[in-house]
Every structure is written in C-alpha cells, then in structure tokens.
Amino acid sequence: MKGPLAIALVLLALPALAGPADQKFQSELHGIKGPQDQRVRMAATEFPWSALGRLNNGQGGHCSGTLIGPRLVATAAHCLWNNRTLRPMPVTAFTFVAGFDRGEYLKASKVTALHPASAWVFTTEQQSLATRANDWALLELEEPVGDAVGWIALAEPRAGMAVAVAGYGKDKAYVPLAHLGCHLTEQPLPGVLFHDCDAVQGESGGPVLAWVDGQLRLVAINVAVIPSRGELGVAASISPMTALAAQLGAASSTRAGPLSQPSSFDVGAVLRASAIP
For residues 260 and 46, is the Cβ–Cβ distance under 8 A? Predict the structure, then answer.
C-alpha cells in the first residue's frame, strides 16, 4: 500500500504462542506514550471494571472486551483471528471472563455467536488505517453475565473527549489496568479515532469510556498502536455498530450488577475534571 493511510500499525491482540515469530512479538511492548506508564490497576470486582473482561481464545491468547448488554460483548474484530491457522477461530474457542483478577472472576460464559463488522476482511496482509473503522465485533454469550456484573451503554464519540482506556495488557495479563483522563485527540477518518492513552498488546477490544449525559458510556473500541507516531493509539468508533448492537440486545443505559461493588473512586469525576474546555 502507498499513501498517507499506509501506516504501519501494531494490533493489540495477544495471540497464542506459536514459535520464534510470536516469541519476538512477546518481547516487544508497544503503546506506552512516555517515560512513565500511566496505567493503574483497577479492582475487577468494582463497577465499571466488573463489566470489563478477558476474551480467552482457547489457544493461550486473549483480548479484552466489554459487556454492553446482558449477553452482548463488544471487542475488536482482529481478535477473532488465529495466527497459527491463519484463519478466523471458531465460535467454540471463545470464553468471556468478566471481572477477572489473577485467576478469580465474577462470571464467565462461552460465546455462542460472532458478529464481526461485515466490511472487516480477515487477512495476513497489512491493512490501511481506514480499515480500522471496521475492526469491531459483537459477541453473543450463552449466559446473561451482564445481569450479574453490569454493562456499559453506547454513546457517540467526538475528538477532544476525556476518556479511560482499559484492558488486560500482555505485561500484566491477569489484572485489569486503565489509563484515566487521557483523550481522543483526533478523528482522522470516518469511524477511526486517535487517542493518547497508554494501552498495550492484550488490550485490543478493550473499552474507550467517556462521561456522556451523566453516565459512563462506551464510545470506541481500542484496536491498534502506530509506533512511528509516538505509539499513538487507534480506536474504532462505536458508531458503525450501534444498529446491529441494538438488534442483538445492547442496553440503552449503563448499570451495575448485583455482584458489582461500588467503585472506590468516582471515574466520572476524573473524566469530567480532565475534559478539555
């Protein structure tokens, strides 16, 4: 590919180990923007982090995902790809584990249906930045996990929003981490957003959260990093998925679940304080 959209991206999925190439991948950490990692460990049992989970692929790899309804999870489409077989993984490979922390968790469920964006192309070829608008997938769960741990409703993103990006990074894959109060810096293309949040491999599919209309909302899906641009983060807007999400049972309002503990700090207050005037 040639031109301004042919930017080398590092996808943030954490694949199964398969040999020297994957071992090299494991040794490289992309996504930290400055000299100090701004990610902070979150309590997995506290809302909204209880609605965050590890999407395990049954091959030793994982991504992150967010409950957006009782049985519905939003994640990145490229998380469905198997680097060993060079084809998408079957639905039976996936388990969503909500509120995961060092082997303990609140709820888990097998995935029963995969709905990647219809325009997403599974390929080993380098794709353009424009394709990241389609790098999203909705997963239906066997169990209504959200009824127990809560869910986060959707809202439209805009450049300049103060956000929180969270997930299970490859360097600390057994605890949830989040960078709070960073920003969506630019919308370079329809459906594609840049952010300045720290997020690394394994955090693909993780939530980009913002405070909208008095609630915490999911506004984008974290999908990639551009190392050549200071480890700039790339996210897929939720805009293209909203219609399908509504058909599949996405909630219209954010809520905690009976297994969720109250947050030890006010995430909304942090985001409001970080808003750009």
Answer: yes
Listed residue (1, 3, 15, 38) closest to 231, CA to CA: 38
- Asked if residue 64 lies in contact with residue 54, where contact means CB atoms within 8 angstroms, the answer is yes
In Å, how far from its chain's centre is CA 263? 20
Between 142 and 34, where is the model more confident?
142
d(C-alpha 75, C-alpha 78), whole Å? 9
Say how far apart CA 196 and CA 165 lie, in whole Å. 10
Q: Enter the pTM of the model.
A: 0.91
Helix, strand, or coil (residue 94): coil
Contact at 8 Å (CB) between 204 and 15?
Answer: no
Q: Are 105 and 97 in contact (CB under 8 A)?
A: yes
In whole angstroms, give the CA distance from residue 264 to residue 229: 35
Set out the domains of the chain in order of their start, with CATH numbers. 10-15+30-273 (2.40.10.10)
In the structure, what pLDDT confidence band is assigned to residue 126 with cuts at 50, 70 and 90? confident
Q: Which residue has the tokens 């959260």?
A: 209
Residues 51-85: pLDDT tens digits? 999 999 988 889 999 999 999 999 999 999 998 88
- Supply 52's token pair: 């965050």
- Cα–Cα distance list, 124 to 76, 121, 219, 271 (Å): 16, 10, 28, 37
> Distance of alpha carbon 76 from its chain centroid, rounded?
6
CB 184 within 8 A of CB 195: yes
How far is Cα of residue 127 from the mean position of the Cα atoms in its chain? 19
Provide the pLDDT for residue 3.
Answer: 38
